[in-house]
Design goal:
The chain has about 400 residues and is of the alpha+beta class. It contains 13 helices and twelve strands.
Length: about 400
């Protein structure tokens, strides 16, 4: 005897891919056409409801945003972990909204805190702004501007990209941070090359100090600090920054800024916004992406930003601060990441004593941690924030 019943679909429980979603969508459309609907009550028979529910579930499985909402309860556990390790502040935002904010150990939302080498990433953005302005290209030889280097067989090979990625081979020269130095730029450009350009990652203030001199010359008498403020800090609403200028007025680009957690998060907003901040395009998106490409010498470091890219592979986690304490010849940067359980597109502005600005574009998330050192673990902290602990 003929029947109008539609066969029940056999919906398999498996991870939904693009093909699975397409099949489910086609099945729902087919069922809607084949199954009579009581339009008076807007009632859909169980078979159609089941197919629609399966489609929604599959879409949710496919949507990282749906599964990756950061929870305030997870953040609270991370804050407790941070506070017990001399944490001062913690701020988490996602999709432009504050998920969690916490201050401890006598700190407050309005009190600025040293971000140390987190300062470098702001100057990296200034470098990209200068590229956009046509002052230079990333792969230009530095010796085109610092002409004293033309006669040096190794310095003449160094590019601006290598300055910003700290792979130029120049001595790191941590002593450049001393306040007694009269002209840091002049001292920096005279430093020796101790490795072939492009072959070694040597962390230190020297590279950005050379960059400061290059930018000074390109500006032809205009102030480097004024340029930075016009193109970066003022665009982000940051004022009253500490530049630790030497006697010649040269800023110390490697360290020095003090910011509240909310102020530092603005740099994260710029990255999440693909170079745009509050409607202003500070750096073009395609140019900003250059900052997040590692080098052969250190795949975990781009142009003044640390990268979690190697978490895509079976990488080991590393405490980057402790790695930087090793002699540069002993540090192994291949096959290491900040946190294997954090998304691979996470980038980090990192300062001494565990000052951190974690930026995760795929989650549209920004995580700020400030503190006074302590036995802190980036990987464990991130697992707590992201709810990925056992």
């Amino acid at each position: 005897m003929p029947t109008n019943r539609v066969p029940q679909p056999r919906l398999q429980r498996r991870k939904a891919g693009a093909t699975d979603l397409n099949r489910l969508e086609m099945r729902v459309v087919t069922l809607r056409r084949a199954v009579p609907v009581n339009r008076h009550y807007l009632f859909y028979p169980p078979i159609l409801r089941e197919a629609c529910a399966s489609l929604i579930f599959a879409v949710l499985l496919k949507s990282p945003a749906a599964l990756a909402a950061i929870q305030a309860s997870d953040c609270a556990r991370a804050a407790k972990h941070s506070e017990s390790r001399h944490g001062a502040s913690m701020l988490v935002t996602q999709n432009g909204r504050t998920v969690f904010e916490h201050y401890a150990n006598g700190r407050s939302a309005s009190r600025r805190w040293p971000i140390f080498s987190g300062t470098k990433s702001f100057w990296g953005i200034a470098g990209l702004a200068a590229v956009h302005d046509g002052l230079f290209r990333l792969d230009d030889p530095v010796s085109d501007t610092i002409t004293e280097w033309k006669s040096d067989p190794r310095k003449s090979q160094i590019t601006i990209r290598q300055l910003l990625s700290q792979t130029d081979g120049i001595e790191g020269a941590s002593y450049l941070q001393r306040s007694t130095i009269r002209d840091r730029n002049a001292m920096a450009i005279r430093l020796p090359v101790i490795a072939e350009p492009g072959t070694a990652f040597i962390y230190g203030p020297s590279h950005l100090q050379v960059f400061s001199e290059l930018l000074r010359r390109k500006l032809r008498g205009r102030s480097v600090i004024s340029y930075f403020e016009a193109h970066v800090s003022s665009q982000l609403g940051l004022h009253g920054l500490i530049y630790k200028k030497d006697a010649r007025g040269n800023p110390l680009c490697a360290t020095g800024f003090e910011l509240t957690a909310r102020e530092w998060a603005r740099l994260g907003e710029l990255v999440i916004g693909s170079g745009e901040y509050h409607g202003r395009q500070i750096v073009p998106a395609n140019l900003l992406r250059e900052a997040f490409i590692g080098s052969q010498a250190n795949p975990a470091y781009g142009l003044t930003f640390w990268l979690n890219e190697q978490s895509r592979k079976l990488s080991g986690e590393a405490d980057m601060e402790r790695m930087l304490e090793l002699p540069w010849q002993n540090a192994q940067w291949n096959g290491v990441c900040i946190c294997k359980d954090a998304p691979a597109d996470m980038v980090v502005a990192l300062g001494s004593h565990y000052q951190r600005l974690f930026i995760i574009p795929s989650l549209k998330a920004i995580i700020v941690r400030q503190g006074s050192g302590g036995n802190f673990s980036d990987a464990q902290f991130l697992r707590l924030v992201l709810g990925r602990t056992q």
